[in-house]
Amino acid sequence: MVHALIGALLGLLAQGLIYKWVDLSRLSPTLELPGSQRLSELTPWIRTKDASRGSFPADHGLILFTLTLYGWRVLEPWARWSAAAGAVLFTLPRLMSGAHWLTDILCGSIPMGLITVGLYQGLGLDGPIERRIVPLLEHWIRALTPARLRRWLDRQPRRTAC
Predict the structure, then answer these.
(1) pTM of the model
(2) What is d(CA 50, CA 24) in angstroms, rounded to the nearest whole number?
């Protein structure tokens, strides 16, 4: 739970820094290609985001792939591949609705996620965060968890990081 929170925060930080420092405005396919059918026009009763003036890199994909890549070192092998499949699965709706190009994901989100996690570990930020922040967050989450759920979680076998 704590690692998922840290991975998501890392992805949000990367997204914020990329959009602040790098101006990569590119229109989404629904705005770029003439005669594109927009999902929001076909189904006006469903709120969808099918267009973007800055589609590169794919923002949802960046968060998902950063979270997946961060979790790769602490998850069991089956969970790693499940997270990777989930990241792909949850990125597809934005691609299929025309909000992003395939290159927004393949050349933007995945490489930026790799760079973010690589810098996080390469700069040695993982050590201090694991030693200081993870125990603090675990304590807070445990304190906020209802007693009944806490008892159930205590019965579950603990797994160690790879």
Answers:
(1) 0.74
(2) 18
